[in-house]
Specification:
Layout (H helix, E strand, L loop, with lengths): L21 E15 L14 E12 L5 E14 L3 E17 L3 H30 L12 H18 L6 E5 L1
Antiparallel strand pairs: 1-4, 2-3, 2-5, 3-4
Helix pairs in contact: 1-2
Length: about 180
């Protein structure tokens, strides 16, 4: 006699109990947003090359005792002109609830550090672009970010921190 897959009530094959790692996106949402343009309306007439400074950070929190995690991708973008005049400042915390079951600790850390922020980034990028344009400024789209490279750098810094006793920062800065 041959083995058959169990059938559930609706006639479909029942999922296997141990099917390996499972990843699902439960919800994506804006957790916090801020836009400031302290030098308007004078800033609209200013000439010069704007300097953009972007700070990127990430926070991961397990939701209860479940396999659901809240991942919050924070992006702060500051646009300045000469003489350190802030033209605008945008702060966005784009968040998502992700269910990750069946991952070993190393794979779970990698998924939370690369895959989840890669999913959230396009949403945050859109919110930032919309806020800047709604503030009366020229449309602006942030460049793509390689979260795998950032994660690898974070692992390198963690390893160096363990050897030297320093704590690695979860924040990355750079010019956009």
């Amino acid at each position: 006699m041959s083995e058959q897959d169990p059938i559930n009530a609706n006639g479909a094959a029942a999922p296997e109990q141990n099917a390996g790692p499972q990843f699902t996106v439960e919800k994506i949402y804006v957790k916090d947003v801020s836009f400031e343009a302290p030098k308007t309306p004078q800033a609209f007439g200013e000439q010069g090359q704007p300097q953009l400074q972007m700070n990127l950070n990430q926070r991961v929190t397990r939701v209860g005792e479940s396999s659901t995690f809240e991942v919050v991708l924070g992006i702060n973008l500051t646009c300045k002109l000469a003489e350190d005049k802030t033209v605008y400042l945008v702060e966005v915390q784009q968040a998502g609830l992700f269910n990750l079951a069946g991952f070993d600790d190393q794979s779970l850390d990698a998924m939370l550090g690369t895959h989840c922020p890669s999913i959230l980034y396009p949403y945050a990028r859109q919110v930032i672009g919309d806020l800047i344009q709604a503030g009366g400024f020229a449309p602006f789209l942030l460049q793509p970010i390689n979260f795998e490279a950032l994660y690898a750098e974070g692992l390198r810094q963690r390893a160096a921190g363990q050897q030297g006793g320093d704590l690695a920062s979860s924040e990355t800065s750079g010019n956009a």
